[in-house]
């Protein structure tokens, strides 16, 4: 699987997580759900964006390595 495909799957999974969380949050609205959102979900998005950026850079490095070695 290419880095581009993996990056797209990661983005799609985050989007799906957000959709499901919005559904859950509609029924689970208390201080514990707010803490869960703050502690886990809000910190997850920047980490996923950073991972996607790293994957994009790695894809370029791998393409250059293939070009140089091919």
Can you give me a brief rundown of this structure?
With 70 residues, this protein is mostly helical. The protein has helices spanning 3-27, 31-69. Helix 1 (3-27) packs antiparallel against helix 2 (31-69).
What does this structure look like?
- The chain has 70 residues and is an all-alpha fold.
- It has one domain (3-69).
- It contains two helices and no strands.
- The chain has helices at residues 3-27, 31-69.
- The longest helix is centred in the last third of the chain and has 39 residues, at 31-69.
What class, by secondary structure content?
mainly alpha
Taking all residues together, what is the mean pLDDT?
A: 93
Rough shape?
elongated
Number of separate strands: 0
Helicity level? over 70%
Instruction: Give me the Rg, rounded.
Output: 17 Å
Order of helices and strands: HH
Described by strand count, sense and barrel closure, the largest sheet is: none
| Cα-to-Cα separation, first versus last residue | 20 Å
């Amino acid at each position: 699987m290419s880095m581009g495909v993996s990056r797209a799957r990661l983005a799609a999974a985050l989007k799906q997580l957000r959709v499901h969380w919005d559904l859950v949050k509609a029924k689970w609205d208390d201080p514990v759900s707010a803490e869960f959102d703050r502690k886990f979900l809000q910190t997850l998005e920047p980490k996923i964006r950073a991972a996607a950026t790293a994957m994009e850079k790695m894809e370029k490095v791998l393409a250059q390595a293939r070009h140089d070695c091919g």
